[in-house]
């Protein structure tokens, strides 16, 4: 028969006083890759240097970003539709030129 205090001894024996190091990447892997780096970059004080992705932009690119950023949602959608139409027109033109090249035998491989 178990003593009335036997249950307490059993529960006490199950307790673990081991300290887990939460800094260990093996024990606590990062759930979403890159989130920790992003969070660390947000904590840094704002500096005067531009972000890495802006380093290769020219002044024309920055002006276009500012212009697109100032558009309303409707204007931005109109701009996107215009770009889609332009891409479609370029595709049609390329198709015509490829057909023209085929008829003129420009694309034919030289015979050896």
Describe the protein's architecture and organization:
By secondary structure, this protein is an all-alpha fold. The chain has a domain at 55-111. Helix content is 54%, strand content 0%. It has four helices and no strands. The chain has helices spanning 6-14, 35-43, 59-70, 73-103. The relative contact order is 0.03. It holds the Pfam family LIN52. One of its GO terms (biological process) is regulation of DNA-templated transcription. InterPro entries: DREAM_LIN52. Belongs to the lin-52 family.
Short description:
It holds the Pfam family LIN52. The protein is mainly alpha-helical and 112 residues long.
Class by alpha and beta content? mainly alpha
Describe the sheet with the most strands: none
Radius of gyration: 32 Å
Distance between the amino and carboxyl termini: 99 Å
Q: Quote the beta fraction.
A: under 5%
Number of strands: 0
Identify the quaternary structure here: single chain
Report the principal-axis shape: elongated
Q: What is the number of helices?
A: 4
The helicity comes to 40-55%
Low-confidence stretches: none
The H/E string reads HHHH
Mean pLDDT: 79
Strand-helix topology:
Layout: H1 6-14, H2 35-43, H3 59-70, H4 73-103
Protein name: Protein lin-52 homolog
Family: Belongs to the lin-52 family.
InterPro entries: DREAM_LIN52
Summary keywords:
DREAM_LIN52; mainly alpha; 0% strand; elongated
